[in-house]
Amino acid sequence: MQLIDGKALAKRMREEIAADVAALRAERGVVPGLAVVLVGEDPASVSYVTAKERACAEAGMRSVEVRLPESVAEDKLVAEIARLNADPEVDGVLVQLPLPKGIDTKRVIEAISPEKDVDGFTPVNIGRMMIGDKCFLPCTPHGIVKLIEFAGMDLKGRHVVVIGRSNIVGRPLSVLLSMKGVDATVTLCHTATRDVAAFTRTADAVVVAAGRPGTLTGDMLRKGAVVIDVGVNRVRDATSARGYRLVGDADFESCSRVASAITPVPGGVGPMTITMLLWNTLASARRRAK
User: Fold this and answer.
1) 3-state secondary structure of 184
2) Domain-by-domain residue ranges, the chain?
3) Stretch 43-49: mean pLDDT, rounded?
4) How does DSSP classify residue 249?
5) Catalytic residues, which ones?
6) What angle do CA 195, 258, 168 make, to 5 degrees?
7) Mean of the pLDDT values across residues 254-276?
8) 280, exposed or middle or buried, with CB in 10 Å at 0-12, 13-18, 19+?
9) How far apart are CA 144 and CA 123, in angstroms?
């Protein structure tokens, strides 16, 4: 059974990105800039933003942090985004989600310029992706495709089941996997799917992104299937100093006995998300350098 090491791929890609950033700075005098907007003090969001800033520093990129109180007016937030859109030294703009109640997330995301939407969340970039035009691809789905390539898996003509239909992972991933170059046959399952196991037992690969531990178990898999686990969940663990441990959406113990390859949690898909964010920011900066 192959353990698909997202940390190893992320490390290699980040080293390549850092080298490209240094070359861009030396040859064109351009330093990629990523602006991150954080509203409120949600601990998980603060931790994730801090990780993004650290990754930027390691890659030699400029990080711009905009922190706003949870009580910020929606118009003020949109105005901040407009300011970053207009800043010529900012190549990427992202707003950390979720936003506090009372703020229209759709309006905020749509306020980001598609040319700086390095998260790949705006309707313009999602639309471009759907028709195969060049655009910023959503980071986690793009990272999953890179992981599949890294593991040496050929999904052409293979049946892939995606569990979860979020706009961040499940839906865009189902599109990317079906596109020319990957060429998988994709089934998208969700909470209204009557018998998920009936689909997963016929799959060559299963991507589980449901946000619930134990969504996928070994008895739901065909022997030799590949499992890509996107979930990150906290479960109580009295033996841990923190009182909890992180698990995915797949039951690792039972699935690993059946699967030919599987991503661990942590250390699988997770490291790829920020890596692809850096990838998109560098691509945006290269466009500015032309």
Assistant:
1) coil
2) 29-113, 139-270
3) 89
4) S
5) 52, 96, 119
6) 55
7) 96
8) buried
9) 21
Task: Show the tokens assigned to 163.
Answer: 């569990």
CA 216 to chain centre: 20
- The CATH number of 139-270 is 3.40.50.720
Query: For 187-200, how does the pLDDT look when each residue is reduced to its tens digit (9 = 90+)?
Result: 999 999 999 999 99
Alpha carbon distance 243, 252 (integer Å): 20
Q: What is the DSSP letter of 114?
A: G
Contact between residue 217 and residue 234 where contact means Cβ atoms under 8 Å apart: no
pLDDT band at 241 (very low <50, low <70, confident <90, very high): confident
pLDDT of residue 124: 97
**H-state helical runs in the chain:** 6-28, 43-59, 74-86, 105-111, 123-130, 139-150, 170-178, 196-200, 252-256, 270-289
Contact call for residues 51 and 270 (beta carbons, < 8 A): no
Tens-place pLDDT, residues 70-105 = 999 999 999 999 999 999 999 999 999 999 999 999
Which CATH code for domain 29-113?
Answer: 3.40.50.10860
